[in-house]
Design brief:
Elements (H helix, E strand, L loop, with lengths): L4 H7 L2 H8 L3 H16 L9 H13 L6 H9 L5 H17 L1 H5 L3 H9 L6 H14 L6 H5 L2 H10 L3 H12 L8 H15 L4 H14 L3 H8 L17 H19 L1 H4 L10 H6 L5 H8 L5 H19 L21
Helix pairs in contact: 1-3, 4-6, 5-6, 6-9, 9-12, 11-12, 11-13, 12-14, 13-14, 13-15, 14-16, 16-20, 19-20
């Protein structure tokens, strides 16, 4: 059974020997042996802490040795644990995957399945930690296909549970993976939930949601579902200059991709109909105030926001002209009316 350094030193009759050893190397050697023994006798659960994992990463990886830490944690996850213990184990596995690259690469598809099974846990904190662990493993190419198998489950979680941390974890995972075509039907079903997350007041979740929507906007079979998705009447508040620059930039990228998509020959070949509260009407409808918001962002203090706002303006101008001469953009029918109110 392990003992602490004070306990170990307590068993040594230091008081009797310190006078004789203090002036020589013997005391230093004894102290070194005591500390070394005390470290070796640390309780096994100590390694669940981030500090111990980092120490293992530095010491073991430096010498090219397998610490066995990641395997021990994965094995412990197989045993029945309470919710708190499972969350802590998953958190430690995530740290190990990032810090112990060689050990993480030696894991198996069964390990991914084990972590994925935690998405069915009744406790949200366990789900969140499992999502973070899968995100860590997604950085290893050979696991991506296996992780993709959990895509539909992840979409179900973010669309049925209103928890901002879970939304961030789930969306970060989805944004790290190529999404296969077979999940497109499920993506259509969760589109309203994604739009609600985008319009929430939690910046981290909003940024992740808009990144996913921007990616999906480039899929021909999903573009109409996005554009016809219902939004709040104040949706254009997302384009206000008071929004964080990181969110503004992503929202502008989203707007540019939507504009480009609706101008494509493939999309224009069909006459689409949109509901009055749709995203399309909020951005591109006759009553939209998007032009005013964009012009204000051209003088935004952050350069990347300025540049992206200009890109959206150019795209919208092309949208007005493409029906006249598809091969080029002409300034004759401006989206930005001078001296008129939209």
């Amino acid at each position: 059974m392990g003992m602490s350094i004070p306990q170990y030193l307590g068993q040594m009759d230091i008081r009797k020997s310190v006078v004789g050893l203090a002036t020589g190397a013997g005391f230093i050697y004894l102290l070194y042996k005591a500390i070394k023994a005390g470290i070796k006798c640390q309780p096994p659960l100590c390694t669940a802490s981030p500090i111990c994992i980092a120490r293992l990463a530095v010491e073991r990886e430096r010498h090219g040795r397998d610490s066995g830490e990641l395997r021990r944690l994965l094995n412990s996850l197989e045993y029945k644990q309470d919710e708190y213990a499972k969350s802590m184990i998953l958190h430690s596995i995530t740290r190990c995957v990032y810090l112990l690259e060689a050990e993480a690469s030696s894991c198996t598809a069964d390990d991914i399945s084990l972590v994925g099974s935690m998405l069915d846990d009744k406790d949200n904190s366990v789900k969140i930690q499992a999502l973070n662990t899968l995100k860590a493993f997604s950085g290893i190419r050979k696991f991506r296909l296996k992780i993709q198998e959990h895509t539909i489950k992840v979409l179900e979680l973010i669309s049925t549970i209103w928890d901002s941390e879970l939304h961030v974890a789930g969306l970060r995972l989805l944004n790290s993976l190529p999404l296969p075509d077979y999940v497109h039907p499920q993506l259509r079903r969760v589109m309203p939930a994604l739009m609600e997350i985008l319009q929430s007041n939690y910046i981290l979740a909003q940024v992740q949601a808009i990144r996913l929507l921007s990616y999906l906007a480039q899929k021909n079979d999903l573009l109409y579902d996005i554009l016809n998705c219902q939004v709040h009447s104040n949706f254009l508040n997302l384009f206000q200059s008071t929004q964080p620059g990181s969110l503004l930039f992503e929202v502008l990228v989203f707007a540019e991709r939507l504009s480009e998509g609706r101008n494509s020959p493939h999309y224009r070949a069909v006459k689409w109909h949109y509901n009055e509260q749709s995203l399309h009407e909020a951005l591109f409808g006759d009553e939209s105030r998007l032009a005013d918001r964009l012009l204000a962002l051209v003088i935004h203090p952050e350069e990347e926001v300025q540049i992206q706002a200009c890109k959206v303006i150019v795209s919208l101008q092309c949208s007005q002209d493409v029906g006249v001469r598809p091969s080029s953009c002409r300034p004759s029918h401006s989206y930005f009316h001078s001296g008129e109110n939209n």
